[in-house]
Amino acid sequence: MNNDLLLKGDGQDILIRDGIVFGRGSGFELRPGTRTVDVRGCLVTRGFADIHVHLREPGYSYKETILTGTRAAARGGFTTVCAMPNLDPVPDCPENLEKELEIIRRDAVVEVLPYAAITKGRKGCELVDFAALQDRCVAFSDDGSGVQDGEVMLKAMQEAARLDCIIAAHCEDNSLLHGGYIHDGRYCAEHGHRGISAESEWRQIERDLELCERTGCRYHVCHVSTARSVELIREAKARGVRVSCETAPHYLLLCDDDLREDGRFKMNPPLRSAEDREALIEALRDGTVDAIATDHAPHSAAEKALGLRDSAMGVTGLETAFPVLYTGLVLKGRISLGRLLEAMSDAPRRIFRLDNPLSESEPADLTVIDLNEKYTIDSGSFLSMGRSTPFDGMEVYGRILMTIKDGEPVWEEKR
């Protein structure tokens, strides 16, 4: 059966045959039954890679499943996602990780690469067997909680350095939280909330960078949100420390001035100050912030209906990431389109060694985008089970028309 696909572009076509990029150019001799898709006027780019998503399965399928989460990923233009380990059971041994891998093999519509935990049960005490897990996972993380004991993190980094694998750290010093749940800023003070200090993030990054420098391990900082955090990372990179980092769309586009008494504005880390947001944009421009990841964190409607104080931490992001960033940063001249694509595709793959160049004889993982189409984000139409986003109702440009994984369309916008 012929499953060839020809993307008919402006002066240059892309022929996909047997799941790979067969050629780029024009005048191809097509086999009978080749499907042709008109992509003239559209951007065709390498599929996006999200190195920080929560797919909630196994253990929390009332929030999201691997099927619904990967469908949402495909709709958002992502062909690869890396799934965090705050699951039940925690993927802290080969047997537990295999439970997650079984569901991935059965249900995923895009590539899903799971994280393994750093510590058993993500309790921050006893290290997992890194060697037994490294060939089955993309990296190691206790995401959802920071490793509080510096000696435990030192041993984890020593083991990661020995095996040449990545520690991806959720950086949060619990001793500095004091029951907070939004940023300790103006909105917090004026509305009687409890605040989370910026120091609770950057203080643990500071500790980990010193340990990383000592051990030489590959260290990745998750969801960076503060100006001081990026300063520390910028200085460490200048010293040759093997550190990379990500931030999320909401930290680049929103700040605590945008807060409302609504659970869709509650996530961890919280929305920080306008000054922090500007520092993150500058760090994205100069490469200190390597990548953009969504931290897609779906919850049930009931868990997100309890206001800022009591709602669960986390918002969805897979279906909104590109359009909100393209509209809020590229069209406003804050960053270039090339830098946005690099941060959403090339940099994540480079950091985590996920090879997939958009070139001949390579798997065809592609995203087709109409940059000129204007529409309104409607969380009610999401494919994700999680509908909580601070961008609901935002007018955006940049519609994902098609996502192709290994030569097969896994998402097509109905026109």
Strand runs, count: 17
* Main beta sheet: 4 strands, mixed
Oligomer: single chain
If you average the pLDDT, what whole number results? 96
Class by SSE composition: alpha/beta
How much beta, percentage-wise?
15-25%
What string, H for helix and E for strand, traces the elements in order?
A: EEEEEEHEHEHHEEHEHEHEHHEHHHEEE
Unreliable stretches (pLDDT < 50, length at least 5) are none
Helix content: 25-40%
Describe the structure using short key phrases.
415 residues, alpha/beta, four-stranded mixed beta sheet, four-stranded antiparallel beta sheet, metal-binding, Dihydroorotase, hydrolase, dihydroorotase activity, EC 3.5.2.3
Description:
The protein has helices spanning 66-75, 94-107, 130-133, 150-163, 186-190, 199-215, 227-238, 249-253, 274-286, 307-310, 321-330, 337-351, and strands spanning 5-8, 13-17, 20-25, 35-38, 43-46, 48-53, 78-83, 111-114, 166-169, 182-183, 195-196, 218-221, 243-247, 291-292, 366-376, 395-405, 408-412. The longest helix is centred in the middle third of the chain and has 17 residues, at 199-215. The model has no long low-confidence stretch (mean pLDDT 96). Helix 6 runs parallel beside helix 7 (227-238). 30% of the residues lie in helices and 20% in strands. With 415 residues, the protein is α/β, with parallel strands linked by helices. The protein is globular.
